[in-house]
Structure formats: structure tokens, C-alpha cells
Amino acid sequence: MSGPLTIEARARRRRRRTAAWTTVAGLAVLVGAALVAWSWRGELPDPVASHWGASDAPDGFSSLNGVLTVMLGVGSLLVLGFGAITMWFGHSALTRRVGVATTLWSALFIAALTIGSLNLQRGLSDAGDADGVGGVLLLALLGPLVIAVIVAISVAGDERQPTIAPVDPGAPRATHVTVGPLTWTGAAASPTAMVLGLSAAVLVLALALLSQFWGLLVVVVLVVALIAAMSSAVVRVDGSGVTIRSSLGWPRTHVPLDEIVRGDVTDVRPLRDFGGWGWRVGRKGRVGIVLRGGEALLIERTGGRSVVVTVDGAATAAGLVNVLADRARPQSPDPR
To answer: Model-level pTM?
Structure first.
């Protein structure tokens, strides 16, 4: 008879279960949408409109089978891909929640866009007479986003994994520290991410002006908010641990002092280490807040997890992290 699972085993099981139910849910959404669309085949023109131009009028046509094949093919690839990322890299709750939200949003967006555009054509003899798809696009963007965020928030957090093991004596430590409370705060921003994000916002704005579909302005607002959330970070080190958040307050991650194994400085190359800029996931599920290349604060935590944030003054922050982590170990002697 096997004994109780270790914390690491429970974490692996939680990661696998999260990836599994998310993937199954995403595929079920796609299959359900395909069945609904297929039930409308007697009410739809042949061929159906499959693309709308800048004037929000149909300019591309396909068979119903072709539309459903694209929906199921592209949708399944996205769901399986994001599900695999959640499975292999979901070591932290933040990563699992982002994986769940992305997987579900992808499936719901593609399903809603397909069903919505086909619904516009029910009862028509010529698909070219279909109304504009702008309203459907807006609902397909926003509706699934709300659902995905709500489901992601409900995903279970990480199990607490405190340790009383002493911090590595070789880890850097701040000198000339006082006996009282200690804090350090740093901020960083990514000009590259800001330029790319603002360029995307300008393109959406131009599309709204050309099509005169003003609902796309909501998308512009969302893109700007996403830029602010993903291209900046505030780092605080204090008696509760290390807190990293965007300038909007979310995303946010916190590492308690009793889960910190070591603080250190590392060198980050965004494309090589994380595949880009922003809040990213790297090898072995490492969470990266990558706003530029170069010096970064590395927090190694229990359970084989780690967080990297590119911020100036990383060496000072790492030294303070280790001093505070030393103080949080009541059973370990002060290495100083």
C-alpha cells in the first residue's frame, strides 16, 4: 500500500489534472460548436461567407465543411498546444492560471466567431447578403475573455512549501544592514513591448476608422491596458518576502520568505531564455518578468520553482532577500 503523496507529487498531479480538464473543456467547446453549425446546414447558403473585408462585407466564401474543418483544425491545435504548455510548464499557480485562461479563450473565441458568423447567414440564399461581422467579432473577443478570466481565477493556488533549511552560505548578502525592518523597491519597463503593443493598438484603431465599426475602440482600450500590465513591473522586497506586480496591480506574484531558497543575480537574454518580452514562462516552468535583456533578480524557491525579473539594482535586492530569508529561519544560525 502506497504512502501519502509528497508535496512535489501532489503538485505534479495538480498540474496534470489542470492541463487535462482544460484541454478536454476546450475540445468540447469546439466539437459542440461544430455540431450546432452542422445542425444549421439546411438553413445556410452554399457556399457560406467565410471572410469579411475592411468594409465589413463578405469577400471570401467556402463550403460549410471547409469552415468547420478550419475551426476544428486550428482550434484543436491551439487547445492542445496551450494545454501542453500548462502541463509541462505549470509549476506555479500563476502559470497554470494563464495557461487555463489562454486555452479556454482560444477555444471559445474560435467557436463564437464561427457560430456567430454562420448565424448571420441563416435563411439567406446568397451569403454575399450577410450583415457585417463586426458585432460578432467584438462579442467573440470580449465574452470568452470574461469567462476565461473567471475560470482562471478559480484555479487552485500553490500548496505552501515552507522550509527551515538555512539559506546557502555562499549566496550574496547585503552588508551594513540595520536591525529594524528592511525594504527595497525597484521598477522596470520594457520600451520594446510598449512599442509593439502601441503599434498593435494603432492598427486596431485604424481598422475601426476604416470600417467605422466603433465597437473596436473597446479592443483598443484592452490592448492599451494589456500593454500597461505586461510591459512594466514593480518589485518590492520586505519582511513578507518578494512581491512582483505590474503597474496596474495585476498580474502579481508573491514569494514568502520561508519559501525562498536563495536570491541571486542572473543574466537574461529575452529571446533565448523566454522566447520574448513580458510576463513569460521559461524552462522548467520558471516564471520570467522579462522587460529587457541583462541583469535580473533570480528568486529560487522551494518545490523547484523560480522567478526571474529584469530590474536595475538586482544585486542589492538579492543581498537583501537573503538577509531577510536568514532572519525568517528561526532554527538556523545567522551566517553573518
So the answer is: 0.77
